[in-house]
Design a protein that fits this description.
Elements: H1 4-15, H2 18-25, H3 29-43, E1 48-49, E2 56-57, H4 59-84, E3 91-98, H5 99-104, H6 106-116, E4 120-127, H7 129-137, E5 143-146, E6 155-170, E7 180-181, E8 190-194, H8 199-210, E9 219-224, H9 227-235, E10 240-244, H10 245-248, E11 257-258, E12 261-262, E13 267-276, H11 283-299
Parallel strand pairs: 3-4, 3-5, 7-12, 8-9, 8-10
Antiparallel strand pairs: 1-2, 5-13, 6-10, 6-11, 6-13
Helix pairs in contact: 1-2, 1-3, 1-4, 2-3
Length: 300
């Protein structure tokens, strides 16, 4: 239902790149340029400033970006409401998920969700918690699934699954011979941490400080953008790390990494939905929320 030129325009706005917009929409870059030029001709004004190798929205472009997002949301909601008349969900659902959830939780769920709602097209963005929250506030997604606090009063956070961060280190490490470690042991270790803005990092920092280990007392040798990157780096002997239990368990039988309990340090956390404050989401976002809550209850 959405005007195609506006869809192209929104993609360029989000990517701030004609090339990346072409990749996202599976079009050629000249086709993207042609659609934007046709829209500019129709409105009689430039929408982007492309000088200096950068793509920047003009004042007119900023106005259209806001209205185009509103029109896209209206078109999607209209399609949802019409589909609901026949008792089924239909349309595009844009959701955002923190990296660990996107890698280890959603793949177990989305196949069944699609079988229940075959007319729903899913668009899942993956990033850290901070990015997911930003996408939600900007209206790029309808609902988010995050692994850390949202830290905003205008958003509602609702837990849907329990998780735990566990320590891992190379299998040949001296710690492999010990049944239990102490927080003091961590002070001399080389840490591999998730990047700033990551929910995993935020939860870990709070837990370590609560246990008496301040961040200035640890040696951070590398910051990485995913649990998989941390696990691979630990396997290579580059340091120690903390990642979600779901990421560690399948790798332990391979014999390259090991884990151990730490006395006085247990790091539970929740995977949570995040959505605008107010009523719980309805429509497609509500369908995903309901389905995920039901599925996660079966996993407990």
């Amino acid at each position: 239902m959405e005007n195609f030129r506006l869809k192209v325009f929104r993609s360029v706005c989000e990517q701030l790149s004609f090339r990346r917009a072409a990749e996202e929409l599976h079009l050629s870059q000249p086709a993207i340029t042609q659609q934007v030029k046709a829209l500019e001709d129709e409105l009689g004004t430039r929408l982007f400033d492309r000088t200096g190798g950068r793509v920047v929205l003009t004042p007119a472009g900023r106005i259209l970006k806001k209205r185009a997002a509103e029109l896209a949301e209206l078109a999607a909601r209209t399609q949802e409401e019409i589909a609901a008349l026949s008792g089924e969900h239909s349309g595009l659902l844009s959701a955002g998920a923190s990296t660990s959830i996107a890698q280890y939780v959603l793949p177990r769920m989305l196949g069944d969700f699609k079988r229940q709602h075959p007319k729903v097209k899913l668009q899942i963005r993956s990033g850290n918690t901070e990015q997911v929250v930003e996408w939600l506030v900007e209206g790029r997604i309808s609902i988010g699934l995050i692994e850390g606090p949202a830290l905003r009063k205008d958003l509602r956070v609702e837990p849907f699954m329990e998780d735990e961060l566990v320590l891992l280190f190379p299998s040949g490490h001296p710690w492999s011979k010990r049944k239990e470690l102490t927080v003091e042991d961590l002070k001399g270790a080389q840490f591999l941490l998730r990047e700033r803005g990551s929910g995993t990092r935020r939860v870990l920092e709070l837990a370590l400080e609560k246990a008496g280990l301040k961040m200035r007392e640890i040696d951070v040798v590398m910051e990485l953008d995913s649990s998989e990157a941390i696990i691979s780096s630990v396997e290579l002997g580059l340091g120690i790390g903390f990642v979600t239990r779901a990421a560690v368990l399948p790798r332990l039988p391979l014999g390259k990494i090991a884990t151990a309990r730490i006395k006085g340090l247990h790091i539970p956390r929740n995977f949570s939905f995040v959505y605008p404050a107010g009523p719980k989401p309805d429509g497609l976002a509500g369908a995903l929320r309901k389905f995920t809550l039901e599925e996660s209850a079966r996993w407990r």
